[in-house]
Amino acid sequence: MTRKPRNLNARDQFEREWFIENAWCDHCNAADLGIYKPSEYEEDGHVFVEGICRGCGNMVKSEIVEKDSDG
Ligand SMILES: [Zn+2]
Predict the structure, then answer these.
(1) 17-71 pLDDT tens trace
(2) What confidence score (pLDDT) does residue 66 get?
(3) Is 2 exposed, middle or buried (0-12, 13-18, 19+ CB in 10 A)?
(4) Helix (H/G/I), strand (E/B), else coil: 8
(5) Distance of CA 55 from the midpoint of ligand 1 (Å)
(6) Is the distance from CB of 61 to CB of 27 less than 8 angstroms?
(7) How far apart are CA 35 and CA 71, in angstroms?
(8) CA of 38 relative to ligand 1 center, distance in Å
(9) Residue 28 C-alpha to ligand 1 middle, in angstroms?
(10) Where are the domains of the chain?
């Protein structure tokens, strides 16, 4: 499985902060704790934001679902 790094900083500030603040944590079972050291990557055609949960310190990742304009 290939994992391609993407540039999270290329997104606008609002979008970036939203991903950081709303990242889901399986360990805390909560979505609004936020993450440290966020990074974005693509794997198997899906895009994820990964980082360290501010609540429990575990590595977490959330898939980014891009909205299509014709959806
Ligand atoms: Zn957590």
Answers:
(1) 999 999 999 999 998 999 999 999 999 999 999 999 999 999 999 999 877 666 5
(2) 76
(3) exposed
(4) helix
(5) 5
(6) no
(7) 30
(8) 14
(9) 4
(10) 3-64
